[in-house]
Design brief:
- The protein is an alpha+beta fold and 136 residues long.
- Helix content is 42%, strand content 19%.
- It contains four helices and five strands; from the N terminus they run ααβββββαα.
- The longest helix has 19 residues.
């Protein structure tokens, strides 16, 4: 991961932590967050994967972004992780790669927990977009 991208991700994370709804993003909003970030990554032609953490019953417990270069690391609203086992708190470490289009459909079906307030999505978009606007 390039230093500029790393700094952008850290900046996003710091700004999100200042929001009242921050603690709820990974409780029903991780799919929306990943969708917003993935859209910016595509815009800047940054290579990534979207992973859904699935359970035995095929339900999705978490969504995160994976970067593979120069080393594998993962990103969600909590920040960057270099140890995949950090996501065990969401359940089994079974992952399925999805496209942005597939994630958008999942988000449209709104199968996430209702704890996350959908009204915070515009603020998340604003933070992510502003940080990526400063990326280059």
């Amino acid at each position: 991961m390039r230093l500029e991208l790393y700094n952008t991700i850290i900046k996003i994370n710091k700004q999100l932590k200042q929001q009242e709804f921050y603690h709820l993003i990974n409780r029903g909003g991780c799919g929306f967050f990943a969708e917003i970030v993935a859209s910016s990554l595509i815009k800047y032609k940054i290579t990534f994967s979207i992973l859904t953490q699935i359970q035995v019953d095929a339900s999705i417990n978490h969504v995160l972004i994976q970067f593979n270069s120069p080393a594998v690391c993962w990103f969600d609203s909590s920040g960057i992780e270099i140890d995949i086992h950090e996501y065990e708190c969401y359940g089994e470490l079974n992952f399925n790669e999805v496209t942005l289009s597939e994630l958008i459909k999942i988000n449209e079906n709104d199968r996430w927990r209702p704890t996350f307030t959908r009204g915070s999505i515009p603020t998340i978009k604003q933070i992510v977009n502003k940080c990526f606007d400063d990326y280059r």
